[in-house]
Amino acid sequence: MPEVHQVHIDAALTHLSVGYRNPAFIADELAPVVPVRKQSDRYFVFDADREAFRASDDRRAPGTEAGEVNFSLSSDHYYCEDHALTSVIPDEERENADPPIQPGIDRTEFLRAKIDLNKEIELAAMLTDERIITQNTTLAGDDQWSDPASDPIAEIESRKGAIMSSVQALPNVLVLPYEVYTALRLHPKVIERVAYGSVGAVNEQILAQIFDVERVLVPRAFRNTAAPGQPPHMTYIWGKDALLAHVPRRPALK
């Protein structure tokens, strides 16, 4: 009688494999893409001096000329760097791959994930660089949101005022990296706001209502900081910096 191991030859499953995906990139939501025809060009900047916000005497006596007002027009420059990666697919791999392996699709998804990762890392570094974003506050002691005595709702409101004074637009997006998001969900002042409501678990939508913004974005993307060949060392890309911003609903003229 044949042994059990003799009546079956192991083969790759065709309906199951194991892979890893970065769970949530937010770069395109926080910095909407603007399609352009040329790698470099200029764009107009209207009324950088806020002349439209200046009160002017508009009274006119009968038969006289109206007072003349005007605004400045300038331009700025952009340059789009090229970004590309490649991964070789040997003919032998294409010819010998088992059905669950799709060399072309697998490589395309892998390369796209790495390019998206780089974009996320670059944007996170830019928006948490105190030399670029000068309106920032570092919380310490019992002001940190992980401390039950802190008041994140009051802190967000005070930051809204700073943004409003700077760009005359209310912030509409709050970025809460995952570790910050989980701390706020359990914060006593947040729980107090929802304790008497009929809502379930505190999620992004509930926090958006509490902080009075259109959207709360929770980046969950990781990066592997281990050297090649070493075991993975996974860290959050966005760290523990909350970001309050005004993001236009769509890029357009003016």
How does this model look, in words?
There is one protein chain. The longest helix has 25 residues. By secondary structure, this protein is of the alpha+beta class. The protein contains seven helices and seven strands. It is 29% helix and 11% strand. Strands 4-3-7 form a three-stranded mixed β-sheet. A two-stranded antiparallel ribbon has the order 1-2.
Indicate the topology.
Layout: H1 27-30, E1 40-46, E2 73-79, H2 91-96, H3 103-127, H4 152-167, E3 173-175, H5 178-185, H6 188-194, H7 204-211, E4 215-217, E5 222-224, E6 234-236, E7 243-245
Parallel strand pairs: 3-4
Antiparallel strand pairs: 1-2, 3-7, 5-6
Concise overview:
This protein has helices at 27-30, 91-96, 103-127, 152-167, 178-185, 188-194, 204-211, and strands at 40-46, 73-79, 173-175, 215-217, 222-224, 234-236, 243-245. It is an alpha+beta fold and 254 residues long.
Which structural class should the secondary elements be placed in?
Answer: alpha+beta
Strand content range = 5-15%
Give the mean pLDDT: 91
| Major sheet | 3 strands, mixed
